[in-house]
Each structure stands twice: as C-alpha cells, then as structure tokens.
Design goal:
The complex is a heterotrimer of chains A (506), B (347) and C (308). Chain A has 17 helices and 22 strands. Chain A is an alpha/beta fold and 506 residues long. In chain A, a hairpin with a 2-residue loop joins strand 17 and strand 18. Chain B has one domain: ABC transporter involved in vitamin B12 uptake, BtuC (Orthogonal Bundle), CATH 1.10.3470. Chain B is globular, with a radius of gyration of 21 Å. Chain B starts with a helix and ends in a 7-residue tail after the last helix. The N terminus and C terminus of chain B are likely disordered. With 308 residues, chain C is mainly alpha-helical. Chain C has one domain: ABC transporter involved in vitamin B12 uptake, BtuC, CATH 1.10.3470. Classes of the chains: A alpha/beta (506), B mainly alpha (347), C mainly alpha (308). Chains in contact: A-B, A-C, B-C. At the B-C interface, helix 7, helix 12 and helix 14 of B face helix 3, helix 4, helix 9, helix 10 and helix 13 of C.
Chain lengths: 506, 347, 308
C-alpha cells in the first residue's frame, strides 16, 4: 500500500536545542499511528511542521504523492491534513453548525445552515459522533467539543487527522467513545496520527507505534507483539550516569502529609484523585509526570491556593486543610510555582517588591501598614547577595533580569525564609544549565539543613538526580514511590504512561 | 494583508513624560491647523488663552479653584485605574457628594453653628463614598461590569440631584434650579483673604501627595498596585481582589465627594443644577493624561483648568469659540492613549 | 385614558426612540465584533453636525444625509485606528472620542456659520412619508406608516441587522470576531479587520441616528444636542442582550419613559418627573444585576488580538 504521508529527514533546531533530528515517519491510509514520547521529545514540533505552523530546517513532506509546501497552514489544510489541537478553536456561544460554517472558508454570502446541519448529522451518524448540529457549544462537555473539532476537520475534507493528546481532558467513558470514533474513521480509509503519552491507549487502538526521544525516533514497532515494558523502555530508557552517591540520611520527622486529596477543575473534571504521600524532614520527594496530570492542582491545593474536594493535609501534624495560603506560609510552607512570568513574580515590579510579595504586611518590609524601605533594603541586599542575584540594583524591574536571576529572586524569597517545607514545581524550567545547577544545589542545601522538599518536574532526568525518594504523578494519582537506590526506570516510564490505571483494562 | 500592516509605525519616542508632552504638543498643532482653517491665527489664539489663564491674579485664582475638584477626582480615578478598576462614576460621586454637603449645609446651619462646615464636608465624603460603594457592591456581588454600573449611576445621580432641586431643597421663584444660598458658616474658608481663592486647591494637592504616599509607601498601596499588575500573582500573594476593588472605589468616592463639596461650599455657595457636569469625564481624561500617577495629576489638572479658563477669555476677546479647548483635551487624550497603548491602564 | 392621548403618547415614544434605535443598531455591530461602543455618543453628535452642515452648504437634504454618514464614520474610524493599531483601551478611547466630537462640532459650527456667536442654521425638516394604503389603517396607520423616512430606516435596520447577523457569512464572522478571534483567524480571516469594518459601519448608523435629531426632528444643530442618547443606546444594547429585537424593546422602553415624563401632567401621575426619568437607568441596572455573571458579553470584547 502506498504511503499517504511520508515525512523524510525532518530536522528543526531552536537555538542550541535540536527539537527534531532527522525524523522519518510514514503513514498509510486506513491506519492509526501512535506517536509516543515524553515532554520535550519533539512530538509537538514534528506535528507543527506537518501542519505548516513551523518550517523545518531540513527534510521534506510528501502527502498524497505530492510534495507539501512547508510553512503554510492553508496549504496543509487544503491538501487534506486536519489537526485537532489540544486547545479548541471554537466559539462557545455559537451552535455546532455555526462553528462548522465558520471553519468552511469559502462558502457564499448567504449561510446554508440547513444544508450544513444535514451534512453534520450524516457524518455524526456514520462515525458515531453523537453531535446535534443545533446545540450550543457551551453546553457540550469537552469530549463532545472535541468531536465538533473532528467534524470540522472532516468537512474540510481531511484524509489525515492528527489528534494531539486528545484524551488528556476526557473522562474514561469519553475516551472509549473517542477510540470508537477513531476505529470508524480508520475503517473508512482515513489515517490518524494519535499523539499521546499513555501506553494503554496506544496498545488498544493503534496499528503501529513510533516512539520519539530527544528529537529522534528511538523505536518503531507494530502494536501486535509490542509490550508495555518494551514501549516504556523506548520512551525513557537511557544510559544514565550513576546518580551521585549521597550520604544516606536518617529521615526526619513527618513534615507534610497528604491523604486522599481530590480536586476538580472548573469544568468538573477530576484533577486529583486520592493523591497521597508523606514527606519527611531532610529529604526530597521528587515526582515525575507528564504535564497536565494534576501537578498544578496538587501544588496549588497543598499551598492553599486551590480548594480540595476531599482529603486532608497535615503540616507538622496539624490539619491545615481549610487554612488560607497565608496561614500555611506562616506555618512554614513555602511554594515555588512553575510560572515565573505571571505568578511567582510580577514582571513590572522591582526586585525589592517581588521579594516582599508574600510578606509585605510583616516586618521588615513594613511596620503598622507603612512600607519600610530602609528596613527592607537591608534584607533585600542580604538575600540577593546570599543567593547571588545579578541585577542593576534592587529597584530595577524584575523583568530586566535574566531568567536565572529571576528564579534566584524567587529562591531568595521562598528559601530565604528557611521554611520547614518547600514545594517546588518545575523550578528549573526555561533556565540554562548553570542556573539550573544553582537552583538544584540551593534546594538540596535546604534539604541538608533538615527541610522537607516536594519537587515536581516533567524532566525525568532531573527527578532522578534530585530525589531521595522518587515517585510518579499520573492522572491525579501518586504512585510508585521508591527510594532512589531501588528505582527502576522502566517501571517509572510505565507509571508515567498510565500503566497502573490501564491495568484493569489491559 | 491586515490593517495593522498598512498603518504607519508608531512615532512615539522617549520616556513616558516625553511622550505625554509630545501628545499635548501634537494636539496643539492639530488644533492650530483647525484654527487656521477657520481663518484665524493660531498663535494669537494661544496667546489669548495664556493671557486669559494667567493674565491677572484674579484669572489665576479662577483657574486654581477650577483645578481643585479636577485634581481630587482625577487622583481617585487614577488610583482605581491602576488597580484595574474602571471607575467611570466620578461624575455621579461628585454629584452625590455635593448634594449631601448641601443638605447638611442647609439643614444644619442653625443647629450646628460653627461645626456646620466640617459636618458638610464629612457629609460630602460619605455621600460620594456611599455612591461608589453601591457601584462596587453591584459589581462584586452580581458580576456587572463596573463601567456599566458606574455609567448608569451617573445618570441616576444627576436625576436625584435634579429631583431635590425641584423639590424639597429648591429655592422658590429663582429663575434657575438652585437652593437658597448657604449660611456664611458653611462657606469654605478662603486661602487668601479678600479673594475668591478657597482652600480647595490645598486640599487637592494634599490629596494627590497623600495618594502618592499611600500608593508607594503603604501596604495597602502595594496591594492595589499588585492587584492592578497581575491577578495570578495577587492570588499567589494572598491578596483578595474583592477587598482591593472595594477599597479603591471607596477611596475614589471619598475624593470625588470632597470635590463635589468644595464646589458647592466654596464656589457657588449653593447647590445648582448641573454643577458637576463634565467634571467626572474630565477627571478620567486628567487621570489618563497623568498616566495614572497621582503626582502627575497635579499638573494635568492645572493644565485642563487653565486651558478652560483661558479659552473662555479667548472667546470673549477675539471670538474664537471656547469649545476649542475640548478639541485640545480630546486630542491630547487620544494621543496619550495611543502613545501608551496597552499599558494605558496599568502604567 | 382616552384614545387620542394614547396615540399621542405612543407616537412620541416612537419618535423619541428612533435616534436611540439607529445608534443602538450601530452599537450592536460594534460590540458584537469586539469593541466597546462607548464612542456612540460622539459618532452620533458628529453625524448630527455633518448632516446639518452638509445640507446647509449643498442645499440638498440627500447630501446632508450622506454627510451625516460620513460624520459618524469619521469618529468610528478614529476609535478604530486607536484601538486596533495602537491597542488603546476601548472605553476610555470612546470617552476621548466623545470629548473630541463635542469640542470639534461646537467649534466647527461657529467657524463655518457664525462669527463666534452661536449661529442658527435652519434646515427644513424631513417630512413624514405616508405609505399609501397602509397609512389609512386606523390607529396603526397613523402610528407606524406616517413617519418620516429615517424612522422607517431605523425599523428596517433592525430587520436588516437581524438577518445579517443570523443568515450571512459576514454576520457569522462578525459575531465570531467578538467571541473568539482565534477561531476567526484559524478560519482564514483577520478578526482585527472585521472589528475595524464593524466600527466604520456602526459609525455610519450612529451618524444617521444623529441626523434623525438634527435633520428630522429639530432642524438645526446645537452644542451637545445628543444629550447622552449615545450612552442610552449602549445601555439598550446591553439590556437587549446584543440582539436586534431585544434592543428594539429596550429603545422603546427608553422612549416610553421619556414620553411619559413629558406628559406626566396629562396623565395625573403622582410621581415626580425626575423619578420617572430614572426608570430606564434603574431598569437597565436591575436587568444587568439580574442577569448577573451570566451576562453574555461577547467573550472577547475589549481584548486585543495578536498572532505571530
């Protein structure tokens, strides 16, 4: 069977990072290809290139036996490539039919609502999509909205559909529904590229799996005969340098305990499900996980910024589940959020102001409601020196500092207060190697002084090198916590890819 | 080909103050062209404006008196906009402040004796603050956009004042809707004896300085700035948006209430219909021209006020319509907005 | 209440509502596309002014109407350039435009006609155009079919905009631009250009609304003659939930309360006229508070759109 799509030798670099390095990918009509990989493996870049949103440095794309002009979403659309993005381009206030009409570029002046509605109903019936063209998108659950995006792509004549992490926002029954739709599309002769990090889904619906790692294809196999272990190994298997030996420490007292934490987001989807762990003084508990598996909700719930639906949080033995974030901060719980641009720091304010951000009502930053610039200055100078912040003066807007120095300010604030417990969420994101090392060393030093650290990152290497105990967060659950000496990388990979939740289904 | 692609690149250069000055200069230039098209000499016109504004001590005093309520209300609006609260209601807050002050001035004259003046001012403060608080409550509790609430309440306030003027407070057989003149005890004291200059300008400048102090040197001001800069960081820092909104609106209401009070207690010595007309919108324009810095509101308010007095005089002297000043104000504002762009509300 | 009074009251309602209605239709276009229509007042005033001056200088009412369209569109363009090219904040830009319109029209009027004094231009009013046959129906005929041309235009505009929004591709794009500009962009159109065009079109309608005042009802231009009707139109749009029919209802309500206020003596109502004048604003507030957080503003209104 001739290939519908052939991507040959695709390479793309962003600065010094090689996002894609000589990738070959072949897709035949009437098949479903799974594209598997961790964060940063190069999946999104490859698909953006396919869809014309990004131009490759090298390589060619042959689609339906014709070379596809790179860098033009219009061309890719016209050729018949349909992309279902993670973030929908739907107008919530309008009906399904209206949304589809919007997407059909060149209809005439007058709208043919009935005609379009009928075609939608037909498509919906053929593929079991269950879409009523007259429903307002706002009233549709997320799974149904995704199917509207699929309808849009089909009505534009897509022969190849790319689904980018489609199940991350779906509930289990909706996932089943989507798999059913995919099978029908395949039976109809279309091709699907299914991007995911979940092994169970790959094994149940794909014909072939391509695994990406560090921008290269690390493995390619038909699904028949593939095993979870094999796939996990392709995803994460690496020759790691021996993790640096560490003086084993006697664990301290229990500082932070989470029991059966559950939380839902505004759309009602469960983000945390019975998450539990126990964190002791003098240790780093590092959790690995693909983005979007509940890490943000876990951190925010622990810090008091997001309400927990159920469960308890104990800080040094006290139940703080209902406490405000301020109260928890005072009790010794510090938090480094992942987002430097708009959460842990205010870019337009000065370094000094950012250091005062969470404690402005206390000494030495203020007295009796009046800001104490002199008192603050002493502390600011001390901290910025202690943490090596390079800046043009503490009154400079923090936006003028480099990413590494900005993060040092965050450290100066959160670690400078000598917290009993620190939650660090992606603290090295976007930092160069030197700054990364500094951040990690500083956090480890806190641990050496007896602090308890919960370290969450999507970089598996980092988790492995930082954690005294290592676990995985996946689909809002925490699993697989083991001492660093006993860690089995492949098992970690399995857990990250949702193996434990698919255990029943498999 | 998008619209953005065919428009000229931004001509603004330099620091913020420079850009504001450029905006004003451009507005004067374009207005000058309009004057030319009208067949008059712009330089002569501007000369008359300057003379009219500064030509004599009396003229200067009129300008200072006019600047006082502008400055007060402008400071309040500037604080609100900084905190990301789009308060368009100073017009109504000034009206309610003036009404409350008038009621106390009329009714309390005998009973309170010498205390009637401070009581009237306090009443004005409460009137403005309450009006603003109601708007904030509707916004916070029912989620109605603060612009809509405050705009609607402006109209309602004006009508309430009119109702009082044509009803219980009004002076019989005056040709004009107004209250009887206030008792001397309720008059705002003069800054300089035997002139018209009342202490309003001092209050206004003090308010601007105080606002600057609060904004930059207090914990509350820090929280207001934070609320205006980033919602997410505010949440992370434990700052409640509702409290910030309420605090800002009430503060602005207080300042507008004082503005309304000094108009009725210091300029007219009575409540007259339409006394607050246009003040509120001018205050917004002034706050934006000052790029939301309380201290810069001082020169911005003076600029507006003297422009107006000068233009009135120019109209009398050489017949060029004083509405020219609205053109200058409108153009300055638009140009400053363009120069500041997206940062307009959070400078 | 006798019949003649009722007809007179209803007639006045329609007359008062007409300019607000036309402006509100323009407001629907502008707001649905994603810009706050605070500048309606200035567009209306400009239209009123240009209408009078155009008719006066050319001697032709038709030229006056075209000039009114231009006048409204001019201020629509000012707001459009500022908000799309310079990313200014919508509401204060609208306020600034209103301020500018107030000053400019007042100044230009005196320059063109007077010698610095308040000039008086008299333009013969647009006369009622009875529609043959329909105008002879008792009651309704007098009320609906003996109206001056711009009033017919206003009601036609309601229908035209309703059809435009619901049944044409342009209307779909316009609505989408104000709800989710990204979706419009993904569909291949520039949402910012759509907003720009909507501002121009809305400006034309608002300009004609001004002409209703100056060319159809009063016959001259006086400073600030729109007197806040532009803001009322904005309130009507919001009360009407950005829908043509709902907005029509809102405008009629405003018209009715003002007509009522003017006739309160005749109806022997014990309520003060000022309180009655408050009713539309209080009603607007109540409706908005009632709708509360679910008020369906176009989702992306006031937000700039940048794609790279």
């Amino acid at each position: 069977m001739t290939a519908l799509l052939e991507m040959r030798g695709i390479s793309k670099a962003y600065g010094s990072v090689q996002a894609n390095a000589g990738i070959d990918l072949t897709v035949t009509a009437g098949s479903i290809i799974g594209l598997l990989g961790e964060n940063g493996s190069g999946k999104s870049t490859l698909m953006k290139i396919l869809f014309g949103m990004v131009r490759p440095d090298q390589g060619a794309i042959i689609f339906k036996d014709a070379e596809l002009a790179p860098g033009s979403p219009r061309e890719s659309l016209r050729a018949g490539i349909g992309m279902i993005h993670q973030h929908f381009t739907l107008v919530n206030a309008m009906t399904v039919a209206d949304n589809v009409m919007l997407a059909l570029g060149d209809a005439g002046f007058w709208l043919d609502r009935n005609g379009v509605a009928e075609r939608i109903t037909q498509l919906s019936r053929s593929y079991g999509l269950g879409i009523d063209p007259d429903t307002v998108v706002e009233n549709l659950p997320l799974g149904a909205r995704q199917r509207v995006e699929i309808v849009k792509a089909l009505m534009r004549g897509a022969d190849l559909l790319v689904l980018d992490e489609p199940t991350s926002i779906l509930s289990p029954p909706e996932i089943e529904g989507l798999i059913g739709v995919m099978r029908k599309l395949k039976a109809d002769g279309r091709a699907i590229i299914f991007i995911t990090h979940k092994l169970g889904e790959v094994l149940s619906v794909c014909d072939e799996v391509v695994v990406l790692r560090d921008g290269k294809v690390s493995g390619r196999t038909p699904v028949a005969g593939a095993t979870r272990q094999g796939l996990a190994h392709m995803m994460v298997g690496r020759t790691l340098a021996e993790p640096p030996q560490r003086a084993s420490r006697a664990p301290g007292p229990e500082r932070l305990v989470a029991r059966n934490l559950s939380a839902r987001d505004s759309a009602g989807l469960a983000r945390l499900q019975d998450a539990s762990f126990s964190l002791r003084g003098g240790e780093v508990l590092a959790l690995a996980g693909i983005d979007g598996n509940g890490q943000q909700e876990l951190c925010d719930t622990l810090a008091g910024l997001f309400p927990a639906l159920a469960g308890t949080i104990l800080l040094d033995g006290t139940d703080v589940t209902g406490w405000s974030s301020k109260a928890r901060l005072t009790a010794g719980l510090a938090y480094i959020p992942a987002d430097r641009s708009d959460t842990s720091l205010v870019q337009s304010m000065s370094v000094a102001d950012n250091l005062a951000l969470r404690d402005v009502a206390e000494e030495p930053f203020s007295r009796f409601g009046w800001l104490d610039a002199a008192g603050a200055r002493t502390l600011v100078e001390q901290r910025t020196r202690q943490f090596g912040v390079r800046m043009a003066g503490s009154d400079a807007a923090i936006g003028t500092l480099s990413g590494g120095n900005q993060q040092k300010v965050v450290l100066a604030r959160e670690i400078g207060r000598e917290p009993g417990v620190l939650i660090a969420f992606q603290p090295t994101w976007g930092l160069d190697p030197g700054a990364t090392r500094f951040v990690v060393d500083t956090i480890l030093a806190l641990r050496d002084r007896g602090g308890a650290v919960l370290y969450i990152s999507s970089e598996l290497d980092e988790v492995l090198s930082v954690g005294d105990r290592i676990g995985v967060i996946c689909e809002g659950r925490i699993a697989g916590i083991t001492d660093r000496a006993d860690v089995d990388i492949v098992r970690l990979g399995l857990l990250m890819a949702g193996a434990h939740s698919q255990a029943a289904a498999a | 080909m998008t619209v953005a692609a065919i428009m000229p690149r931004s001509p603004w250069r330099g620091g913020l103050a420079w850009r504001v000055i450029q905006s004003v200069v451009w507005s004067l230039v374009i207005t000058g062209i309009l004057i030319l098209m009208a067949g008059k000499n712009p330089l002569v016109a501007y000369q008359h404006i300057v003379l009219g504004a500064f030509g004599s001590w009396d003229r200067v005093i009129v300008g200072l008196n006019k600047a006082a309520p502008y400055m007060l209300a402008g400071v309040g609006v500037a604080l609100c906009f900084r905190g990301n609260v789009a308060n368009m209601g100073s017009e109504g807050q000034i009206a309610m402040g003036g009404l409350a002050a008038s009621i106390v001035a009329l009714i309390g004259a005998g009973a309170l004796g010498g205390l009637v003046l401070p009581a009237a001012i306090v009443a004005g403060i409460l009137g403005g603050a309450a009006w603003a608080a109601i708007a904030a409550a509707i916004n916070l509790w029912r989620g109605v956009h603060e612009v809509l609430v405050t705009l609607m309440m402006n109209f309602i306030a004006w009508l309430i004042v009119a109702e009082f003027l044509h009803g219980p407070l009004g002076e019989m057989d005056a040709g004009f809707p107004q209250t009887p003149m206030f008792d001397n005890a309720a008059w705002l004291p003069k800054l300089v004896a035997r002139t018209d200059l009342h202490i309003g300008i001092v209050l206004a400048v003090l308010a601007a300085i105080a606002a600057h102090g609060v904004l930059w040197h207090t914990v509350i001001g820090f929280r207001w700035r934070l609320a205006g800069a980033s919602d997410r960081a505010s949440h992370y820092a434990g700052v409640s948006r509702a409290r910030s909104v309420l605090g800002l609106m009430i503060t602005s209401g207080v300042l507008s209430g004082i503005a309304g009070s000094i108009e009725v207690l210091g300029v007219h010595y009575r409540l007259i219909e339409g006394f607050s007309l246009g003040f509120g919108f001018n205050a917004i324009a002034i706050a934006l021209l000052a790029t939301l810095k309380p201290l810069w509101v001082i020169p911005a308010a003076l600029f507006f006020a003297f422009l107006e007095t000068g233009a009135l005089s120019m109209q009398r002297q050489i017949g060029i319509p004083s509405s020219l000043v609205l053109v200058i104000q409108g153009l300055s504002l638009i140009f400053v907005l363009c120069a500041v762009g997206r940062g307009g509300r959070k400078v | 209440m006798d019949a003649a009074l009722t007809i007179d009251f209803l007639s006045a309602t329609v007359r008062i509502a007409t300019p607000i209605l036309l402006a509100a239709m323009g407001g629907i276009l502008i707001e649905r596309a994603g810009t706050f229509a605070v500048g309606l007042e200035g567009m209306m005033l400009s239209g009123a002014f240009f209408g009078v001056v155009g008719a006066y200088l050319s001697g032709s009412i038709v030229m006056g109407l075209l000039a009114a369209c231009f006048g409204g569109m001019l201020f629509g363009a000012i707001v459009a350039v500022a908000t799309t090219r310079f990313d200014t904040e919508h509401m204060v830009t609208g306020l600034a435009a209103n301020l500018l319109a107030l000053g400019f029209t007042s100044f230009a009027l005196r320059t063109i006609v007077g010698r610095g004094q308040a000039p008086v231009i008299h333009i013969p009013l647009l006369q009622p155009l009875p529609i043959p046959f329909l105008a002879d129906i008792p009651v309704i005929g007098t009320l609906l079919f003996r109206q001056p041309p711009l009033t017919y235009l206003a009601f036609v505009a309601v229908a035209a905009i309703a059809v435009f929004l619901r049944r044409t591709r342009g209307g779909l794009l316009l609505t989408a631009s104000g709800e989710n500009p990204l979706a419009v962009f993904a569909a291949g159109t520039d949402p910012i250009r759509t907003r720009f065009v909507a501002l121009l079109g809305g400006g034309v309608l608002a300009g004609l609304a001004g002409a209703v005042l100056s060319l159809q009802q009063i016959g001259t231009f006086t400073d600030g003659m729109t007197g806040g009707r532009g803001y009322m139109a904005l309130a009507a749009v919001i009360v009407g939930r950005w829908l043509p029919l709902g907005t029509l209802a809102g405008c009629l309500m405003f018209g009715a309360t003002e007509a009522l206020q003017l006739r309160v003596q005749a109806f022997n109502l014990p309520v003060s006229s000022y309180v009655i004048q408050m009713v539309p604003y209080l009603a607007a507030l109540l409706v908005l508070a009632g709708i509360g957080r679910t008020a369906r503003l176009p989702s992306a209104i006031g937000q700039p759109f940048r794609h790279d």
